[in-house]
Amino acid sequence: MSRLVVVSNRLADPRKTASGGLAVALGQALQASGGLWFGWSGKVVEDGTPGEGDVHLQTAGPVQLATVDLSREDHDSYYLGYSNGVLWPVFHYRLDLADFDAGFIGGYRRVNQMFAHKLAALLRPDDVIWVHDYHLIPLAAELRNMGCQQRMGFFLHIPLPPPLILAAVPEHEWLMRSLFAYDLVGFQSEADVAHFSRYVGTETSADILGEHEFRAFGKTLQVQAFPIGIDVDEFTALGRGQEAIDMYEQMRDEYSRRRLLLGVERMDYSKGLPQRIKAFRQLLQNYPENLGSATLIQIAAPSRESVDAYAALRQELESLCGSVNGDFGELDWMPVRYIHRSVARKRLPGLYRAASVALVTPLRDGMNLVAKEFIAAQDPEDPGVLVLSRFAGAAEQMRDALLVNPYDTTRTAETMQRALQMPLEERQRRHRALLQQIREQDVHWWRQRFLNALNAV
Ligand code: ADP
Ligand code: G6P
Fold first, then answer.
1. Which of 132, 282, 400, 423 has the fewest CB neighbours in a 10 Å radius?
2. What is the C-alpha end-to-end distance of the chain, expressed in Å?
3. Could you confirm whether 268 is annotated as catalytic?
4. What tens digit of pLDDT does each residue of 59-89 get?
5. What are the extents of the domains in the chain?
6. Out of 1.10.220.10, 3.40.50.2000, 3.40.50.720, 1.10.1740.10, which CATH number does the structure's domain 4-229+443-456 have?
């Protein structure tokens, strides 16, 4: 059996709790198959030389970890600058937030080259290499330049925007050509695959050989949607743990006379947080029976704080939460509980379970695993209701959620009210269907389908 080599910028850090969807899912997928996990150590060396970094080797169960430090300059240009200041906003349709500073691309190329060099030294001829996310699009091209002939697949965890948005990135042609160094490219949703196909059709002279097959730059590439899932059994087991039970009981006792609405994410402008608070304000305004009762717990974990757009979002969110509390709060009731921290993963299922309604309302999201975790954590006899943005990748699969357009504040408020009022029978029926869906297409299904497709190329 060939060894699986997974490459991603972020690895799961057991000391931290909110690592984002990619690290959570990959940690679970790798536990199942074993292999090598290669990526950034999370460490920044202040006076390090650009393009250089020490490699650290560690073993974690069946997984070998190989991580590389980044110099300050590389971190700021490759990670903060190009990955999170250009690719992240553009791929989430936010051209207004992109900083096309010409200096960033140099760091992005340099780190991809450095990763390729360090990784190549660890590779075996029959390894299967699976590269993840927007930080590492050109990695296969760099490995191929060095003569690596292994099977290579790429999975994009974030959306791929339509061609005319993508074309705003000055290096879009180079990025898209780099994808053809892989044997298989996977996206989260059919919408992303359609955007890829349209891009190739309009911006390149590639041949579209079939729905999933493209030929350009002397290479044939398979492209397909592989919607990522969660480990439902693991998450359900977590929910039976003492920490989750304690959390649930604590919330139930503290909010016994209230109805809880819950939002959990990284503090990111793609998550639609200001729009959500505005819709919650309308819920209180338009449906006064919720006054003194409906409480929104909003957990927004710190993320990428040295990127300007993130700092600005934090200020906006704090001001919106403050004004809702000021306008509607009572001595014994605060409508919004805003917490700028992460929740320990072991307690998370208890929090989800205590909520009557989950608000997963991103403006754009590759998938969104919180939506799936919320469903996995519910009591099937008395489940909470999922309000889900139609712009999350998860909306293609989770048709039994209450789907909303998060830009439409009035309708979102209306849907929050509908969720709070939903009869038990309808809640059970929707939850049953959603649970079945996330069970059928879980993280193991995702990994197996991707690897089967890669091995079949
Ligand atoms: P993203 O990958 O954009 O961060 P996802 O919803 O796909 O969004 O994945 C987020 C993952 O990180 C989930 O597993 C979720 O439980 C975890 N997470 C996100 N925010 C928090 C938080 N505030 N506290 C604890 N865990 C969090
Ligand atoms: C999203 C991205 C991941 C990233 C995660 C957390 O899930 O798709 O690649 O790891 O957010 O962001 P961070 O910048 O902390 O790695």
1. 423
2. 16
3. no
4. 988 999 999 999 999 999 999 999 999 999 9
5. 4-229+443-456, 232-440
6. 3.40.50.2000
Q: What is the pLDDT of residues 375-430, one digit of tens each?
A: 999 999 999 999 999 999 999 999 999 999 999 999 999 999 999 999 999 999 99
Reported in sequence order, the residue ranges of 81-230 that DSSP labels E, i.e. its strands, are 128-132, 151-155, 184-187, 207-210, 213-216, 219-225
Percent of the chain topping pLDDT 90 = 90
Catalytic one among 76, 268, 365, 442?
A: 365
Ligand 1 pocket: which of 28, 188, 266, 351 to mutate (most atoms within 8 A of CB): 266
354 residue type, one letter: A
C-beta 231 within 6 A of ligand 1: no
User: Helical H runs in 186-241?
Assistant: 190-203, 232-240
Among candidates 315, 309, 310, 324, which has minimal Cα distance to 276?
324
Distance 386 CA to ligand 2 centre (A): 23
Place of tokens 């040295």: 306
pLDDT tens digits along 116-159:
999 999 999 999 999 999 999 999 999 999 999 999 999 999 99
Work out the pLDDT band at 1, boundaries 50, 70, 90: confident
Mean pLDDT, residues 283-289 taken together: 98
What pairing do the DSSP bridges indicate for beta strands 207-210 and 213-216? antiparallel
Q: How many helices (H) and strands (E) does the chain have?
A: 17, 16
Q: Is-contact 294 258, C-beta < 8 A?
A: yes
Centre of ligand 1 to C-alpha 342, Å, is 9
CA atoms within 13 Å, Cβ hemisphere of 192:
28
| Count of other CB atoms within 10 angstroms of residue 278 | 18
Nearest-ligand number for the alpha carbon of 347: 1
The pair of structure tokens assigned to 248 is 């649930």
* Among protein residues, the one whose CA lies closest to atom 15 of ligand 1: 370
CB 227 within 8 A of CB 447: no
Give the tokens for residue 157: 């965890």
Radius of gyration of the chain (CA): 22
Q: What is the pTM of this model?
A: 0.97
CA-nearest residue for atom 5, ligand 2, is 20
Q: Which fold has domain 232-440?
A: Rossmann fold (3.40.50)
195 is catalytic: no
Dmax (CA) for the chain in angstroms is: 69
Q: Quote the tokens at residue 343.
A: 């929740």
* Cα–ligand 1 centroid distance for 272 (angstroms): 14
